[in-house]
Amino acid sequence: MPASRPWPTSIRALRHRNFRLYFCGYAISTLGTWIQQVALAWLVYRLSGSAALLGVTSCVALLPQLLIGPLAGAWIDRHDKRRLLLISQSLLAAQAAGLAVLTHNGLIGPGLIVAMSALLGVLNALDTPLRQSLLSRFVDQREDLPNALALNASLFTCSRFVGPPLAGLLLGVTSESLCFAINACSYLALVIGLLCVRLAPAPRAAGSMRHVFREGLNYALETPNVRRMMLSVLLVNLTASSYAALLPVFARDIFAGDARTLGWLWGAAGLGSLLSTLFLATLTNPARLPKAILASAVACAVALLLFAGSRNLPLSLAAMALLGFGVSICNVGTNIVLQSQAPERLRGRVVSLYTSTRFGFDAIGGLLAGVLAAHFGGPWAMGLAGALLLTYCVWLSQRPAMPVEEQAA
């Protein structure tokens, strides 16, 4: 039960014991994840010098979210979520350890990197909606769920701010294999936290996989707000999130830098994301989010265009911070609205549809950006993404607004 003493509004979800255990474990785990992501991107570009391969690697790590994610939600709602999450975290640790061993022994190459990234994508397609759908079980009062979601995102973005520069420092003095090994060990923190969590048995979805999946899909398609927000998530991640695949190109070719430069670019985007989640953590009324999401999508488009045209590192770091802020508001804000409205019995399926759209089109965007950068250059690819997103924002701003209260009906 929640503690009797008051907690600040911005961290009120931490008064719940189960959420505190999860929060501490995930804080360590997600830091390791970001260290591995930066190290892997640097390893790919160091071995191949190919922007296209960066896009392919990013794509195969995220595309399973789009292909497997919707079905994973139906499967999740039919099983014990905590047990499944323990299994997925253990498998993710094994993947990172395998990557560390292969890299340390000089056995890694482009083919194996793509294969290991694809394996990571499959595991994340199950792990991501599992973690998101369990958050509602970790808080005892539903009104604290938006804050729990914002704090969960703040961990991801804080690690995004700290992890990439830390990875850059590690890469400067050690090797990619040590970064992968650190990530493998970091998963143990969340496993320990989950083992200490006390949860009452939850009702599971009944019926065949086909029935359970169709029930969740019908809810998403027949709810106007869900349709519109999913479309926005699709466009934002197809365009704005594609920067992740191109940062090594900008770090080395545009700014003539090294792994430290890449770390600073990642860190700037992470700082913007962190600031956005701090803003969301103080929000008590989800009805304010739709307008903030649209404004943030415009900010993403402006940041993409600014970064594409900049050759000044401080200005580019500022653009990355703005981009990180905008992408996070769009994605986390959408997640808060969807989970605040979704019935508990449908939560796993709603979350999986959201995560599959978010990460799946992030993958497609990264692949397209890598291919375009290989032919026309990174600035041209990022500028095109900004122009496309800005066009969508103009179109969306001319559509009639739908209040959250009406959407939830």
UniProtKB/TrEMBL annotation:
What are the subcellular locations of this protein?
A: Cell membrane
- Signal sequence residues: none
Q: Which GO terms describe its cellular component?
A: plasma membrane
The alphabetical list of record keywords is:
Cell membrane, Membrane, Transmembrane, Transmembrane helix, Transport
> Which residue ranges run through the membrane?
21-45, 51-72, 180-200, 231-251, 263-283, 292-309, 315-338, 350-374, 380-397
Molecular function (GO) terms for this protein are:
transmembrane transporter activity
Keyword presence, Transmembrane? yes
Report which superkingdom the organism of origin falls in: Bacteria
Membrane topology, record value: Multi-pass membrane protein
InterPro entries to which the protein is assigned, alphabetical: MFS_dom (IPR020846), MFS_trans_sf (IPR036259), TM_effector (IPR010290)
Q: Which residue ranges does the record assign to the Major facilitator superfamily (MFS) profile domain?
A: 225-409
The record ties this protein, via PANTHER family, to:
INTEGRAL MEMBRANE EFFLUX PROTEIN-RELATED, STAPHYLOFERRIN A TRANSPORTER
Q: What is this protein called?
A: Predicted arabinose efflux permease, MFS family
Q: State the organism of origin.
A: Pseudomonas panipatensis
